[in-house]
Every structure is written in C-alpha cells, then in structure tokens.
Design brief:
single chain, alpha/beta, six-stranded mixed sheet, 35% helix
Length: 613
C-alpha cells in the first residue's frame, strides 16, 4: 500500500453538525446557526432559498425576543428541519460541485458560526483521537487584541520543565506562595522531579539576587539572567489574597489556594488577562468549572498532531521522471564494498525532500519500481542513490530478510556505517527489535565494525511494580530484556547446520558480545565503537534522550526504537515524548536516518489484534 503524502499542516477538524449543506448552488448554514433562516426556508420552495435568506438576514440583527417568542422559534426550527434537509437532498444531484463554492453566499451570521476549512491540507477521512492543545478564550482574546497576559504557574509546570519561567515570551509570570511551598516539599531526593525542583529554586534565587524589596512588587525582569526571548516580568505573591470560592471546596488544599489567587487577581487587575497554567488535568477542570481561564503547558509539545511526524519516507508522484528527467545524470560508485547507482535530478519536487529521506515510485503500468535515498540537496537539485535489496536471500542480514518496503529501508540505514543515529518507529510486531539485533550481530561478529552491542531501556512497568530484583546490574535488567531474549532465540534457530552443540556455542558467543546496561548509570560514560540500542525510547523525556545520545564516542552507532502509541511514563504524551523530540530534531542531518515501519509482520493474530483491540 503506497504511503500517503504527509500534509504540511493539520486540517481544521469540524464536527458533523457544523458542516454546511449545499442546495443547488447556494450554501445552507447549519440550523443551529440561523434559526430565522430555517423558519423562512420552511415557507419557501428550495429554488427560492436565496430570497428566503435575504429576508431572514435583517432578522439576525434584530434584538432578542421574549421567552415565549424564543420557545415558539425553537419549535418552528425543529418542525422545519426535516423539510429543509429533504429539500437539500432533492437538490443535491443537480448541484455543480466545482462551481458551488464560488457562487455560495452565506449570511453574516452563518460566517460567524461555521469554522472555515483549510484548503492547503486535505481533510482526512478518519481521525485518531489525539490530544490537541487548546487555548482558553481569555488567551485567544488577548492574542487578537495584542495584549500581554499574566500566567499563574502551577507547581507541576515548574517541576516538569525547570526552564518554563523563560518560555512565555513577552508575557508576565506570577508565582503564588503555595507554588513555592510545594517546590520546597519536593526538593529532597534523587528523582527527576526533585532535581527539577532544586533547579527552579536556584533559578529563582539568581533572579532575586541584588533586588530591592520594592522592586519585587514591581516585577523582576525575566531577561536578567541572559534569556533575551523572555521579555516579561516575574511577580511573586507578596501579600495574602483571598477570594470567595464555593463552600464545598476545602480551604487548606494547595490547588484550591492557587485557584483563589487566580480569582483574586482577576478581581484586582481589571482588564488584565490572567490565565492559570497547569499540567494537572483535574486542576484545569476545576478552574474551568469555577469560570477561571486555564491552559495546559504547550511548550514541551514538539508536535500538536503526531500524524505530522516525519516518517522518513515519501512517495514520488507518477510524473516524477517526466518532470525531473530532462537534465538527468547517472553514475555508479563503489561505497563500503557495495556498488550503487546515483542520479542527479532537478525539478520542483526536490525542495520538499530532506537528506537521507527514502523515496519510492511504484508504477501501476507494470514497470519496475524505484527505491532510493536522498543523499544531497542543493536548491532544486538532488542526488538520489539506489538501495540494496535486503528482501533477497543473498543479501540477508544474519539470516533475516526484509518482508516489506519499510523493513528494506530500515536495513539500509542499519547497515550503513556512515549513518551514526537511527530511529525506528512502528507499532507492535513491525520488526524493530529483530532488525536492530540482526544488524548489530552482523556488524559485530561478521564485519567486526563494532566491538559489542549495548542494550538499554527505560524500566517503567506496565502494571504494578513487583519490587526490588536481586543480583548484579545485568541480572536486575534481564527481566526487562525479555524482548531481546525472544529475538535472540529466533536468530539462533536459523543456524541448523551446527546441531544442538553448535547452537549452544553460538548462543554463548553472542551473549558474550551483548551487554545489558541500566539508564541510571549512563551519566559520564563514553561508548567507543559500540552498537547502542535504546529500546522503548518513547518512555524517555527529551532530557534523558539528550543524556543518552551525547554518550556516543568515535565509531559508535545509536539506535532508538519505540512506539509512541504505547507510552507508560506519567506526564509524557505522544507530542512531548523524547522519541518524538529526536525524530523531529534529527531529520535532514546527513548522518542520521528515520523510518516509520507501517506493516506488522509478527503474526496474523497480532496484526488483527492491533487493528480491532
């Protein structure tokens, strides 16, 4: 199945009731948006819809009617709805879809209710449920008027991102006293949260140094420490601020005290846009229920919609060679002991490509397909390299052959010594671990390009934690590495010539070259000539990914494997995962590559379960 083109920006998502219906050449707005138009359409024929809309337009500007009038209007709308829909359905075959949008005239009331559909990106037929960050109405109003906002930060924002104080551009930041109190309660320990709390405390201490007491009330410039992007000021709660909250809320709870501060700030600073920022979903729900503007912290989101994540693969248009083959140049080179063909093409499609991105063209007229990789880009000129076919048995990697197009692309990256960083994404059963392990064994034991394989992963349990594990570091990590043991068993079974004793000796040799390490002891290490595999990388934060990738020394290759749909770490989403972060940041670098594996090859049961469960 050819991969669809990735849209340049997400399409606007509308509910089914918000789509305008077309009758003839005139657009009909939703009934909820124009009750007067629906009442007029009930009396008029479908051919006179334009006249009815013209009569109903002055009624939109009329003042509100009485309660009795509203009730009768609603009844009229409900009664008229079937007739309007029936008339629209009858007139639909006679409509001209190509000319309808140009001639459609919608009343001003309808324009204000119907959200415009983006024409730059196709509207997908099916959307997966993704968390799309939405701004509050207060923030949207401030953005429209160009006014600065006052963001009240919850404690979990600071503990999630210690640099969040400087991420609000020209807007001001307000810290309630309860936020500082909760920071003090979480500063002890060796966890990531405790380290972040201590870093925030040190940052606040540096901001407040050499500052008079009177200057604190006026606000401390956030650019004081050299952060030029932060043009706002930092305010502290310097006096008791109390506001009336519902009687049922406990007064002593920290979240309720922060909500009280937000309400009192709204009352004191009339005309100022005050917004609460919190990572706590329940906190935002309570704030919205009390009529207070609340938002999530958006700065940690790499992408708002993970459907737009770089896949590393693009399908060429059918007319690619006719438009880009005028000044075509081709030659052959011998790289890393393999002969490859190179093409230099020029055309309008080239600027949309990235270095090390895979391209393919599978003609439907029976011609041979083309699979290549972008090696260089200079304006509208690119150099494409043909790939090695790892689906053939003569090119098998440790007895493993590619079963689909994406696996072939992945093996070309894994077996390329010039590619230092590889990321593989895909659902369960797509072969991420098997391909990585087979490529590692082939380059460690056969070509001896690397000394050993180092395997690590995040120890985040899916269910309840079973407690401490006995033994050494490798013995403690062995239960987490069941996936690698399963794949090693598959790779060892392929060697049937040596018998049972030969397989046992091979297994001992392989295990002597594979080291299992814990993430907790990676700080300060340097890996030289190692094949490093980071499994389940979707559970890593961007900071942890940076710590791991910067461990690479000369001659080391790093692989990040994961499925962003299976995140077990709290406070991490598909958009803020460390795996999403590195895929987005490393795209286009000449020594890195990425492939999103699309089709599962584990078994027909696993493929069906991933679709229906």
């Amino acid at each position: 199945m050819p991969l669809p083109k990735i849209p340049s920006q997400p399409a606007t998502i509308l509910l089914a009731k918000d789509y305008p219906k077309a009758s003839g050449t005139h657009a009909i707005a939703p009934l909820a948006a124009q009750p007067e138009l629906a009442a007029a359409t009930k009396k008029a024929a479908p051919a006179k819809a334009k006249t009815a809309a013209a009569k109903a337009q002055p009624a939109v500007k009329a003042p509100a009617a009485s309660k009795a009038g509203k009730g009768s209007a609603v009844a009229a709308v409900l009664k008229a709805a079937p007739a309007v829909l029936k008339a629209a359905a009858a007139a639909e075959p006679a409509a001209q879809p190509a000319k309808a949008p140009a001639k459609a005239k919608v009343a001003p009331a309808a324009r204000s209710k119907v959200t415009p559909i983006s024409t730059k990106a196709p509207h997908p037929a099916k959307h997966k449920p993704v968390e799309v960050p939405l701004k509050s109405s207060t923030s949207r109003h401030a953005d429209q008027t160009g006014a600065t906002k006052l963001f009240v930060l919850d404690t979990n924002v600071l503990m999630h991102d210690p640099t969040s104080l400087f991420r609000f551009e020209e807007h001001d930041v307000y810290l309630p006293m309860m936020t500082l109190e909760e920071l003090d309660n979480h500063k002890k320990g060796m966890t990531e949260v405790a380290r972040n709390a201590r870093q925030v405390s040190r940052t606040l201490d540096a901001l407040m140094s050499n500052t008079d007491d009177d200057a604190i009330d006026q606000g401390i410039p956030l650019s004081k420490l050299g952060n030029k992007d932060a043009k706002g000021r930092l305010y502290f709660q310097t006096r008791i601020q109390s506001a009336d909250l519902p009687l049922g809320l406990p007064v002593g709870k920290a979240d309720n005290q922060i909500l009280s501060v937000v309400r009192s700030l709204e009352a004191e600073q009339d005309g100022r846009h005050v917004v609460l920022v919190s990572k706590d979903i329940n906190m935002r729900i309570k704030a919205r229920a009390l009529g207070l503007p609340a938002e999530d912290y958006f700065n940690d989101h790499v992408l708002e919609d993970t459907d737009l994540l770089y896949s590393g693969i693009v399908q060429l248009p059918d007319d690619f060679w006719s438009k880009h083959g005028k000044d075509l140049e081709s030659w052959q080179e011998n790289k890393n002991g393999q002969s490859a063909t190179f093409y230099r093409v020029t055309g309008p499609f080239i600027p949309s490509l990235l270095v090390n991105q895979f391209v393919f063209l599978e003609p439907k007229n029976g011609e041979a397909p083309f699979y290549g990789q972008v090696k260089q880009i200079n304006g509208k000129t690119a150099v494409l390299q043909t790939l090695r076919d790892y689906s053939h048995n003569k090119n098998s990697v440790w007895g493993v052959t590619a079963r689909n197009r994406e696996q072939n692309f992945a093996l070309n990256l894994l077996m390329n010594p010039e590619c230092d960083f590889v990321t593989l994404l895909g659902q369960a059963g797509t072969g991420k671990t098997l391909l990585a392990l087979a490529a590692g064994l082939a380059q460690v034991l056969e070509t001896k390009l690397y000394n050993e394989i180092i395997v690590t992963r995040v120890t985040v349990p899916v269910g309840e934690d079973i407690g401490f594990l006995p033994g050494t570091e490798e013995e403690k990590m062995s239960p987490w590495m069941g996936a690698f043991d399963d794949n090693l068993e598959v790779l060892n079974k392929s060697d049937s010539d040596g018998g049972e004793w030969g397989r046992a000796a091979t297994q001992d040799l392989i295990r002597s070259r594979i080291k299992i390490k814990s993430l907790n002891f990676m700080r300060g290490r340097t890996f030289v000539n190692k094949f490093l595999i980071i499994d389940e990388a979707q559970n890593l934060t961007p900071k942890q990914v940076k710590t791991l990738v910067t461990r690479a020394g000369p001659g080391t290759k790093i692989l990040c494997l994961g499925n962003i749909a299976q995140i077990d770490t709290p406070y991490l989403t598909e958009g803020s995962s460390g795996l999403t972060y590195v895929v987005d940041r490393f795209k286009g670098w000449s020594h890195s590559g990425h492939v999103t594996l699309a089709r599962g090859e584990r078994s027909r049961l696993a493929d069906h379960a991933s679709d229906v469960l």
